[in-house]
Amino acid sequence: MPSFWDALRPVSRRSAERRRSWALTVTSQAGAPGSGAGQSHLAVALSLAERRRIVFGLLLAIFLAAMDQTILAISLVTIARELHGLDLMPWLVSGYLVAATVSTPIYGKLSDLYGRRPLLLAAISIYMLAGILAMLAQSAPQLLVLRILQGLGAGGLLSLAHATIADIAPGVERGRYQGMISGVFAFAAVAGPVFGGYLTHYISWRAVFAFTVLIAAAALLSVRRALRRLPVGRGRAGRPIDYAGALLLGGGLATLMIALTRFGQGRGGDSASTLGLLAASAVLFVACAWRERRAPEPIMPPELFRNRTMVMCCALLALMFFVLVGMTVLLPIAMQTVGGADTDQVALRMLPLTLSIPFGAFLAGRLMLSAATPRTLMIGGAALTLITLIAIALTGYDSRLAMGAWMLLLGVGIGVPLPAALVALQMAVAARQIGIATATSALFRTLGGAIGIAILTSVLFEQLRAGAIPGSSPAASALLGSVAQAGAEATYAAFRAAYGVAALAALAALGCALAMPSAVGPPGIRRRSGTPT
């Protein structure tokens, strides 16, 4: 039986020839003026064993970043009961996500200037220190502050791991590794609540933090050794970091994420505080755009957003995570309320989706090594996602076999475009901008997930209010209570409406994939129909 690493070997002699061709092409680009030193695969030749060690360390970092976004979901009630901080509980997750979102593009830009390894080690160290302190927290405010600090560290894990893959693997060979990383991310994000629930039930909620700290320690040791041969950048002489742009971007992202969080918690988009946050976010983004056009070393270069492939890939990733995160929230709720499943049964019923997303991502990586282009995979994945969302909306929850089959196909549809979009994006920008381009894609993924939760839960709330039993008053802050007070037909209609909105997001993702240029690659390196030129 082949080993895990055997699966990473070339699928054919044609694949090996294509990779050699791409390696020669990318190496020739490295000697071009302005191509940007500091991309390690341009400077050092790595053996297969060295690549394996690097990928293993990056997989640990990705697993940690993805799981920590959801692992506390089931533990919140227990934490609130012990620390007497029920009002602050939603912000243990939201505060973490806000901090991670704000710090992501900053890590990406700094890694382009100073190298991946020191930034990745710093991110893991910050995360691990905050996790150790969170394990010992004695009050809800203490835990909230430490979760925000953890988010500041976690913001670098995802973007830097993807950017490092672009450093060590040329051209379409990245698809193999990006598929693995995307698969691990999707699996960890969906499996997080299961791990958190078992640890909290059988040990304590503090064991959740102990578990993540152990993974962080293993990732730190692995990354420290594996990435030691990657060169460390020295910055760019006479071009200081754009701190003003970083502050404006961070402020705009923070206010936007807080507004989305309040909206998703049922505060309503028409409240004065939420509208004020959205207005403040818009002003900060406009000021940031003005600043970035004038800064000598912008934190988020404006030329990235003049790259059609870059824009379409970021939009597609945001929309796919809109669906991914939204459905991982809606489906368990629907199974418990409409389907009558217990908590342990929900975990089993979610397995088709949990396992098929990483399978789809890994499959895409393998297909990119043979004949499929990233654009083709994005179109196919988005179309499959759209079809299965419509089918889920029309399928009753008593049809467990049919629902499981649709969830299986939905996971494959979501998983396939993730590595394909990353590979296309990284091949469409200059080598010196891979870090910030990858971080920007991670930023859009996070925003897509946050917007997905906010919009889909809001649609669900409104539909439940409209269909509530006369005389009842469903509370938007208690979803299960709202479902209990609505009639059966109204509840079905509410979930169908939410799935319909998710299907519209998948349709928009399909439009982005169709609008993608057929040639992918930076100037001088174009790829059409899978052939390097």
Detail the topology: elements first, then pairings.
Elements: H1 13-30, H2 40-43, H3 48-68, H4 76-83, H5 89-114, H6 116-135, H7 140-168, H8 174-202, H9 205-226, H10 243-264, H11 272-292, H12 308-337, H13 343-349, H14 351-370, H15 374-394, H16 400-415, H17 417-427, H18 434-466, H19 479-485, H20 488-514, E1 527-528, E2 531-532
Antiparallel strand pairs: 1-2
Question: Which terms summarize this structure?
Answer:
533 residues; 2 strands; mainly alpha; disordered C terminus; globular; single chain
Shape: globular
State the helix count: 20
Instruction: Strand order, main sheet: write it out.
Output: 1-2
Largest sheet: 2 strands, antiparallel
The percent of residues in helical segments reads over 70%
Class by SSE composition: mainly alpha
What portion of residues belong to β-strands? under 5%
Helix-strand pattern = HHHHHHHHHHHHHHHHHHHHEE
Residue stretches low in confidence (pLDDT < 50, at least 5 long) are: 1-43, 468-480, 521-533
What gap, in angstroms, lies between the N and C termini? 37 Å
Question: Can you give the mean pLDDT?
Answer: 75
**β-strand number:** 2
Determine Rg (CA atoms, Å): 22 Å
